[in-house]
């Protein structure tokens, strides 16, 4: 990519914003080296790295990035056996601590961040060197007294000797013998020796060694003879201290040199982590979002904001390119925002290809360009004696010699600076070439000819920047599909130009220009009408899709209700069968008890007779053959007639009769079923005198509702099954004007008794319940009184 375009689009300012958000020098260096790339896979990795860092900062804003130092040169010198200074060793210790803390932080993150996790695994914690540095150098960059046993001894002796010297000097200063000799009653140091300031005229009266004198010569600094030996001892101890410190620093530097490669790797990883977090911080501060990448040349920016304009004043714009058209021609007045639109797209392309988020609405799409070319502003050079047009064309020649189908071209005021007709012709020819090679292009212009050119070429679209005629101020909004005008007459009139001059200027406009503007306005009005119609159709389509979804949900709900009703019907049928089988077993047991062992033949006959009677009873329950009439023709059916649907095992009412199907209302369901599955029950036939006789569990036979038993036996059932049986029995009892009956449920575990009594207490037709008498079954039975 041509580096000059980075300067033209002010990419370096975005770099500066990013560098400001780094926490270390080495992270800032990565920002300075960051340039856009055109490899799609690498751009994806860069964006993913920013996305992972953004995830971290969204959950944990305070990432521990402090303490990272640029130790690369120090480590390199240590590798060459150089002795590092204490402050340099302290910087290495700080970086080791930062690496250990960051690794612990990332290892404890409950986030899926594969790229950064893989990066952090390269950090090697070196606790022995970190501990060694901590025990050797204090926070002020000075070798600690306890860095070694020898250093501890030396510095202790230095302090003792210094105390003796001060004590001796204090006694000299307090001596009345020397008071008149002192220039000042204080102790100072000259050349690492303790001295006392003595007046010049008394220098021979004070025993000692002269080390210095003041600039005026009035004061000499004399080391008293009484402390010369003590000062000599301190001098020797200071030399020993320096030697020991040098030995310690050499030892620590050697350890650092041994781990040089590991430290260099840690340093690189820390720089990358700092750089990644800086990208995430910038995205948060700019309210930027992740771009959706594609390699199809499609750009769809929604609410795009130029990153270098104050967020409080910038006007968001929408930019589309590469889908329905590859070239966008922007027209409109000066200072309306045309150039900003160009730079917004160019800068966004660079930011994306550098791995940065863009300040636009979510779901914005960006493609990857092989190259980005820009001719923006007046590039004329006085030294090269180039006019505005010459400079402009020089840039275009360079661009056209390099551009290809995967490139982005941004041209400000294409063809300007020369004869309008020739300039417009050149502009149209250049745009045709760029359209032919499939480049993505945005140009700005004032030429009206280019507006009609866009209408006559597929793949080229008009756009304009909005301008408020009333306020004479641009709104900076970019209107796609709408060609703009320069508004010269309106602006001039608003500024106070004489009306007669404006009228004359309008008269001087060529007929062709006026007709062209009229055609453009007509086309624009039609286009707006078509857009409005398209929006209405789109809304209708959305409403239709919504209605289809509602119908699908309703159909699903009806199907679920149908399945539920059928399941309940099957459960009820299974319950009837279980009760019938239990009834059969009980009757057989009673019959067996009525015969003696010696009457085997009579007993077996009675049993067979009872079994046959029960079989007939079950046949009445399980089949409809004896109580129904099969439908033969649709003439027997009419709306309002009650029928039994054999496939659903449900009773319903006919709503409508077709040739092969009938519409039947079954509860809340309305279903269409074949004629062949509808039957008419005997009880539903007109003037039918036969009634269906329900099963009574206590009477052990099928009886009429008019002769319902006063007892019902529900032993052996579950609570759910018992509720179904009792609900039907209570309805029959109410119809038979029965006021009291007994429910036999047995004792057992008590679960059935509790469940049945709770159900009876809440039943709408039950007035009271009580425990049965002893002769009625006691606690194994419940007496129910009906309302």
From TrEMBL:
Primary gene name: mutS2_15
Coiled coil segments of this chain: 506-620
Name under which the protein is recorded: Endonuclease MutS2
One annotated GO molecular function: ATP hydrolysis activity
Gene3D superfamilies (UniProt xref): 3.30.1370.110, P-loop containing nucleotide triphosphate hydrolases
Record flagged with keyword Nucleotide-binding: yes
TM spans (from-to): none
UniProt EC number: 3.1.-.-
HAMAP family with a match to the protein in the record: MutS2
Species for this entry: bioreactor metagenome
Gene Ontology biological-process annotations: mismatch repair; negative regulation of DNA recombination
Keywords: ATP-binding, Coiled coil, DNA-binding, Endonuclease, Hydrolase, Nuclease, Nucleotide-binding, RNA-binding, rRNA-binding
PANTHER family associated with the record: OS10G0509000 PROTEIN, OS10G0509000 PROTEIN-RELATED
Start and end residues of each Smr domain: 712-787
Keyword presence, Transport: no
């Amino acid at each position: 990519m041509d580096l000059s375009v980075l300067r033209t689009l002010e990419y370096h300012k975005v770099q500066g914003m990013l560098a400001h958000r780094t926490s270390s020098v080495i992270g800032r260096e990565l920002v300075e080296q960051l340039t856009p790339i055109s490899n799609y896979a690498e751009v994806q990795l860069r964006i993913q790295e920013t996305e992972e860092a953004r995830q971290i900062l969204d959950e944990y804003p305070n990432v521990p990035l402090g303490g990272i130092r640029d130790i690369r040169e120090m480590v390199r010198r240590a590798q060459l056996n150089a002795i590092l200074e204490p402050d340099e060793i302290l910087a290495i210790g700080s970086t080791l601590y930062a690496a250990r803390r960051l690794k612990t932080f990332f290892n404890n993150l409950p986030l899926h961040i594969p790229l950064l996790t893989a990066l952090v695994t390269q950090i090697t914690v070196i606790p022995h060197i970190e501990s060694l540095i901590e025990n050797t150098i204090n926070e002020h960059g000075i070798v600690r007294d306890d860095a070694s046993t020898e250093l501890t001894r030396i510095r202790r002796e230095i302090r003792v000797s210094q105390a003796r010297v001060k004590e001796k000097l204090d006694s000299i200063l307090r001596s009345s013998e020397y008071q008149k000799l002192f220039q000042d009653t204080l102790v100072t140091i000259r050349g690492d020796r303790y001295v006392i300031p003595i007046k010049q005229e008394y220098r021979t009266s004070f025993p000692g060694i002269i080390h210095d004198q003041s600039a005026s010569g009035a004061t000499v600094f004399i080391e008293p003879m009484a402390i010369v030996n003590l000062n000599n001892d301190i001098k020797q101890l200071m030399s020993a201290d320096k030697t020991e410190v040098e030995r310690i620093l050499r030892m620590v530097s050697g350890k650092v040199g041994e781990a040089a490669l590991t430290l260099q790797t840690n340093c690189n990883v820390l720089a990358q982590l700092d750089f990644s977090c800086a990208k995430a911080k910038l995205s948060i501060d700019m309210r930027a979002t992740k771009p959706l990448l594609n390699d199809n040349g499609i750009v769809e920016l929604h609410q795009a904001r130029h990153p270098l304009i104050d967020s409080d004043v910038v006007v968001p714009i929408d930019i589309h390119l590469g889908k329905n058209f590859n070239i966008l021609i922007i027209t409109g007045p000066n200072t309306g925002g045309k150039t900003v639109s160009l730079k917004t797209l160019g800068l966004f392309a660079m930011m994306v290809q550098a791995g940065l988020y863009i300040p636009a609405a979510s779901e914005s799409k960006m493609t990857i360009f092989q190259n980005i070319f820009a001719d923006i502003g007046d590039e004329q050079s006085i030294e090269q004696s180039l006019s505005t047009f010459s400079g402009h064309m020089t840039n275009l020649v360079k661009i056209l010699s390099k551009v290809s189908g995967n490139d982005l071209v941004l041209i400000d005021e294409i063809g300007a600076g020369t004869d309008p007709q020739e300039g417009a012709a050149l502009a149209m020819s250049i745009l045709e070439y760029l359209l032919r090679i499939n480049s993505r292009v945005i140009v700005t212009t004032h030429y009206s000819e280019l507006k009609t050119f866009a209408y006559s070429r597929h793949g080229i679209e008009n756009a304009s920047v909005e301008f408020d005629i009333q306020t004479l101020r641009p709104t900076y909004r970019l209107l796609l599909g709408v060609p703009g005008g320069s508004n010269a007459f309106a602006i001039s009139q608003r500024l106070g130009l004489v009306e007669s001059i404006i009228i004359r200027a309008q008269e001087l406009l060529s007929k062709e220009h006026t007709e062209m503007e009229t055609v453009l306005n007509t086309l624009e009005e039609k286009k707006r009408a078509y857009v409005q119609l398209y929006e209405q159709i789109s809304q209708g389509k959305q409403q239709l899709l919504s209605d289809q979804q509602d119908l699908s949900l309703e159909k699903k709900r009806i199907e679920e209700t149908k399945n539920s009703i059928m399941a309940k019907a099957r459960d009820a049928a299974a319950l009837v069968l279980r009760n019938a089988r239990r009834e059969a077993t009980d009757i057989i047991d009673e019959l067996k008890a009525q015969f003696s062992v010696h009457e085997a033949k009579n007993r077996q006959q009675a049993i067979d007779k009872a079994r046959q009677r029960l079989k007939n009873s079950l046949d009445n329950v399980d089949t409809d053959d004896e109580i129904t009439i099969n439908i033969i023709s649709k003439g027997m059916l009419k709306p309002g007639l009650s029928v039994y649907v054999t496939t659903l095992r449900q009773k319903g009412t006919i709503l409508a009769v077709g040739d092969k199907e009938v519409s039947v209302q079954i509860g809340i369901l309305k279903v269409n079923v074949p004629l062949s599955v509808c039957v008419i029950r005997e009880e539903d036939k007109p003037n039918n005198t036969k009634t269906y006789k329900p099963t009574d569990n206590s009477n052990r036979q099928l009886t009429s509702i008019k002769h319902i038993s006063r007892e019902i036996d529900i032993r052996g059932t579950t609570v759910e099954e018992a509720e179904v049986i009792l609900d039907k029995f209570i309805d029959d009892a109410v119809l038979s004007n029965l006021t009291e009956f007994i429910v036999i449920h047995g004792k057992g575990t008590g679960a059935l008794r509790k469940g049945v009594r709770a159900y009876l207490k809440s039943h709408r037709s039950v007035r009271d319940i009580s425990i049965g008498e002893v002769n009625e079954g006691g606690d194994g039975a419940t007496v129910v009184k009906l309302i």
